[in-house]
Amino acid sequence: MDSVGVAAAAPDAGPGPAWQSKCPWGAPSTTSISCSLADVMSEQLAKELQLEEENAAFPEVVAAAEGPFITGENIDTSSDLMLAQMLQMEFDREYDAQLRREERKINGDSKVSISFENYRKVHPYDSDSSEDEVDWQDTRHDPYRADKPTTTPRRGFIGKGKDITTKHDEVVCGRKNTARMENFAPEFQVGDGIGMDLKLSNQVFNALKQHAYSEERRSARLHEKKEHSTAEKAVDPKTRLLLYKMVNSGMLETITGCISTGKESVVFHAYGGNSATEDKVIPSECAIKVFKTTLNEFKNRDKYIKDDYRFKDRFSKLNPRKIIRMWAEKEMHNLTRMQNAGIPCPQVVILKKHVLVMSFIGQDQVPAPKLKDVTLSSEDMKKAYYQILNMMQQLYRECNLVHADLSEYNMLWHDGKVWLIDVSQSVEPTHPHGLEFLFRDCRNVSQFFQKGGVAEALNERELFNAVSGLNITADNEVDFQAEIEALEKMNEDHVQNHGKKLSTFSSDGDPPIYDE
Q1: In CATH, which of 3.30.70.920, 2.60.120.10, 3.40.50.720, 3.30.200.20 is domain 234-367?
Q2: 169 catalytic per annotation
Q3: List 132, 405, 479, 508, catalytic entry
Q4: pLDDT (tens digit, 9 = 90+) per residue, 368-400?
Q5: Which residue in 36, 237, 377, 391 has its CB near the most CB atoms, within 10 A?
Q6: Cβ contacts of 121 within 8 Å, gap of 6 or more
Q7: How far is CA 163 from CA 152, 157, 158, 166, 169, in A?
Q8: Opening angle at CA 144, ends 139 and 148, nearest 5
Q9: Measuring CA to CA, which residue among 330, 322, 321 is closest to residue 351?
């Protein structure tokens, strides 16, 4: 049998698998409709095909969008500008509706309401907006003001007979006082009285006003102290920057913390670093004395510096912040004098504005105890007394200084001897009050050691003569102080007339010699 006969007989064969009934080389059962090239390039046909695809994918959206936006048959939407304005109008309507929903959600049933009217989109083509809608701010009722302004005549009252109302009426004054509360500072919360007819009496209003002014002043003081001054165990940003620079330069290795606080300064402990110069050796442990930049503690301390000839020309009471820097500089110079004379005191490392770095009197971050806090034996107490007597004489004769605040609070006990600290207020004997300060120091030292059981302790008058070398003979304290004031007056007149400071006193107890 030839191949043509086999191919013709194959379809008539018996039943078999499905794949055997289909021939890949057979003719297709359906034929596609042919179209011309002009129909394919027709824009109308392309739009119809696009609409069919959109209707199949988004039937609802297309149904809503059908009309002038798609077909372009409407003349009003043929302009792109008009179409853009209509789209913007729809967007503004949705935005305003969202703002109204937010208003209703936030306000609720509250008497105090807010409005987003300033944020709404007022579109010129919005024809659906009602003309009778007005802003709520134009119609709200202000209980503080009358519906119609009433003026009080010059005679001070209105009305006749029993209906006379004066300007001192309780209701009128109460409403005026309530309205005046709006003039208080914003930080003073007075509440919201809208919807309530409040009436404040004059007594209550005056009390609130005074309290508001007091709170405003207190807030200003606290803000200034926080920004521009040192506080207890804390420093201001400028001082902190100075300390950072010392650490970054390698002068200090680290600052551990605060070890002491006082009326005029805060003292921190730090570990010393490496010095930039070879001639200066930085101690292993340092004490950083930060003078407080608050001015309250220095109001009565200008007398220690304004009459000191070293700072007299630079003293300006109108610039208190310079006084604080001069106060730190004064302590540095006084410590340098004491160190050159061999008096046990902290060693000055560096001075930066109002920050003074000194050697630390103590060990392992533990400061040496004050003389008032340490318990000494009778021998050590006697030893400390004679050491202090010797230091007071050295301070007066060799350093030409008077401590002016010497007491058991400013003396430390370390390594079996007394160390003097806090000499920022120290002055020279030529100071107009130098001898008075010396007599006060002698009284403090004498009373402390007499209470401590030192039998050899001199009284304040004997100690004053022993330290100063003066021979003031007076039977009582009043006459003794009178002679001291006379010497100070004589000294002040001499300095003003000749401009010479007091020369070094002789050791044989003679009166002071003025060097002409």
Answers
A1: 3.30.200.20
A2: no
A3: 405
A4: 999 999 999 999 999 999 999 999 999 999 999
A5: 391
A6: 91, 92, 95, 96
A7: 14, 10, 8, 10, 12
A8: 65
A9: 330
